[in-house]
Queue: 2 jobs
Job 1
Amino acid sequence: MNLPPKVTPRAFARLAEIGADQQGSALRIAVEGGGCSGFQYDIKLDKPAEDDLVLEGQGQKVVVDSTSLPFLAGATIDFSEELIGARFVIENPNASSSCGCGVSFSM
């Protein structure tokens, strides 16, 4: 059985800061074909759908659709704040390689 993705407290805290729950939204993590490495992450605020996996913490939600779930098994969703910018990042043990920006990967 595949492990579900995990969300760090830092990622949930960032969602609380931007008020995602007050908008009725969750952070949606999806995997699509494309990008320079074959697959790419689509990360956005969105309304949860009925068949989504919902990960909850600190009153916040992160959702993953059933199609993307196998690609994100065991992944960690985090929030990174550096001099060059702030963004949600995904540490994916299923990815065999990724591009320099961390948006696309191959398996």
Job 2
Amino acid sequence: MQTESTRDDGRRAIDSREALAAARLQLLAATRNQLVLHLPLLGRDDYANDAELAELKRIATSGRRADIRILLHDPAAALRDGHRLILLFQRLPSAIAIRTPVEDADRQNTSGWLVNDTGGYLYLPDASQPQGRMALTDRPAQVPLQQQFDEIWGRSVRASELQNLDL
């Protein structure tokens, strides 16, 4: 049974891989121009299906304000695995930026999250587990995630190993 709160802001618990995939797609579809992703782990199926990639491409090509920032802890593994998100990044590097945390405290942060520009968020306390919470519009809960992302982003380095080398 849906509560009034669930209908209004889309808040719900995430408790399975299916619920997690549905939440990601719903939040990506709600995004206008700006998105941040904190990905300690990038599983083979995370942000890799056709619908998610289509939404990411739509965001990346949405105009001058398009901005997708990704903190990826192990870009070399994603590149080695040929992850489809990396391929999209390589095709659209002007709208998608990927950095890697370098400080130990940042690298030990195992929580994963997505924050969009419409007040939505997805938060997983342990990115290796499909358990967490999401909301379509909950700016008060979103703000600390965005602030933490910005702080880590400022201390991180560009994931240069992901750049296409057009020689």
